[in-house]
Amino acid sequence: MRRFFVVALFVFLAGCATYKSVPFEQSAAQPIKRIGLLSPALPNEPTAFLATTVGQSFGIIGAIVDASMASSRASSLNTILTSNKFYIRQEVESSLTAALEEQGYEVVLVNATRTSKRDFIQTYPTTDEPVDAFLDVIVPGYGYASAGIGSSTPWRPFAWMKTRLVRATDNAVLMREDIVYNRLTDQRDDTVTISADPSYQYADFSGLEYNSAQSAEGVRVAITETSNTVGKLLK
Amino acid sequence: MIGSQQKFIRLTLLGAVASLLAACAQDRGPAPILSVAQTSCLAEPPLTAAKPLMLSAEETKPLEFLISGTSSCLETTEGVRSLFELVQLPQSVAPFSVRVAAVPSSTGLFAPQLTFLDSDGLPVRQISEEKFVFRGPKLTASALINGDERYLLIASNPEIVGDRSQRTSSVINQYQSGGPIYFTVRTGSEFTKSVTYSHGGNVTITARTVDRSLDAR
């Protein structure tokens, strides 16, 4: 249950946390051509997040009921994704590689040891193949989210990536951006936001479960679009 | 008990009315400008009319203005017209970035194209359309400033004026009861907003020093 609250809070606050965006600019003096894509920090499982529930009005009892239902939905979503061969590490690494290559970069996958799933790496590894910069990516959450109960607030896929590009020679931060696909609140203006594709939305969670293959494809689209935006920001 | 229920109902109604009023009070702004109607336009922007932009460490001093139907216009040799404002960039030894944000009105959104000019007003760099991203409801572009860039020309992009953008946002409302029995009701709703890219609209610009250290937030 504790994990549910932590994940729920993270998803709800997606994009609310402030950070100082650093726009990327290719330098003529020290051009970035080869990027070391570090093993991304990933959550243990997808999230099926309902922002507002009846249970929220009934204190701790309601919270316990909510946690149980959320855990059940997350488990169901996890089954949907794995049965449709969606594996988050593979999706993130392959979509980011494709997005970076699309912008003309050479990409090297770099194994990274992380001490936290929430923080960027502080000491970047040495690599066998030299790289110009490291792309450090944290995925705090992905899955499906809905603003509330009812057909007017459908379930849509969401994905959240925190990204940082760091120059290999001197650890200078060359780019820092957070990107959220289908952010539930659209009020803060620091995070890059992407509207969800309406092809993948369900009036209720059972509809999402029933259309299993399409639901998994929706999360794949969310991850791909988020990665493509990372590529755009590194253009 | 009855008193607290009445208080809760009152608060809920007040909350609902406040939400409605907030929605009504949202910046309606100008209607989208789909063509430039001025009788004559300039061939290049006058540098003396540039608005100065201040540099800040925390993005606390945004420069805000409205590009309207009476704003100055530029016309290319091919006869393509756009409305514009010119901004004078701050001078700084420390590296800094600027962010331009087009702020939507109820129906329109400024369609920006950004060109950096040198001290003589000659174009040195243009921000590609692909670099524009939404941050919440605002269409934004950010860029690091190079040493020879002195002015930023913010002009409408005739190629996308008239196109439409649609975005869905969610709203989480929270109502709290008062009195001895305390409880909270949260409801979720969402709305879809469709805007038309326009020659005019509200624009904000911020300049801020860039911290490249790993410890920066």
Record the SSE blueprint.
The complex is a heterodimer of chains A (235) and B (217).
Chain A: H1 2-12, E1 34-38, E2 47-50, H2 59-83, H3 88-102, E3 106-110, E4 133-146, E5 156-167, E6 173-181, E7 192-194, H4 205-210, H5 212-233
Parallel strand pairs in A: 1-3, 1-4, 2-4, 6-7
Antiparallel strand pairs in A: 4-5, 5-6
Helix pairs in contact in A: 3-5
Chain B: H1 2-25, E1 51-52, E2 55-56, E3 63-67, E4 73-75, E5 81-88, E6 96-103, E7 108-110, E8 112-117, E9 123-126, E10 133-135, E11 138-144, E12 151-156, E13 164-176, E14 184-198, E15 201-209
Parallel strand pairs in B: 1-5, 2-15, 7-14
Antiparallel strand pairs in B: 3-15, 4-5, 5-12, 6-11, 6-15, 8-9, 8-12, 10-11, 13-14
Q: Please count the beta strands of chain A (DSSP E, at least 2 residues each).
A: 7
Q: Averaged pLDDT of chain B, please?
A: 82
Rg of chain A computed from alpha carbons, rounded to a whole number of angstroms: 18 Å
The stretches of 5 or more residues of chain A where confidence is low (pLDDT under 50) are none
Structural class of chain A, please?
Answer: alpha/beta
The greatest interface between two protein chains, and residues involved on each side, is:
A-B, 46 and 40 residues
Task: Look at the structure and give the CATH class of chain A.
Answer: Alpha Beta
- Give the count of structural domains of chain A: 1
Order of helices and strands of chain A: HEEHHEEEEEHH
CATH T-level topology of chain A: Rossmann fold
Order of helices and strands of chain B: HEEEEEEEEEEEEEEE
Mean pLDDT of chain A: 86
Please state roughly what percent of the residues of chain B sit in beta strands, choosing from under 5%, 5-15%, 15-25%, 25-35%, 35-45% or over 45%. Answer: 35-45%
Number of helices of chain B: 1
Number of domains of chain B: 1
Low-confidence stretches of chain B: 11-26
- So what's the overall shape of chain A? elongated
Assembly type: heterodimer
Outline the biggest β-sheet of chain A: 7 strands, mixed
What percent of residues of chain B adopt helix (DSSP H or I)? 10-25%
